[in-house]
Amino acid sequence: MRIGIVGSGEIGGTMARLLTTAGHEVTLANRRGPAALTGLVAELGERARAGTVAEACAFADPLVFLATPFGAHPSLPPDALAGKIIVDTTNYMPARDGVDPGLAADRVTSSELIAARLPDTRVVKAVNTLNYKYLLDLNRPGAPWEQRTALFVAGDDAEANGIVVRLLDELGFAPFETGPLAAGGRRQQPGTPVFNRPLRADQVRLDP
Question: Which residue of 68, 85, 129, 170 lies most exposed, with the fewest beta carbons within 10 A?
Answer without folding.
Answer: 170
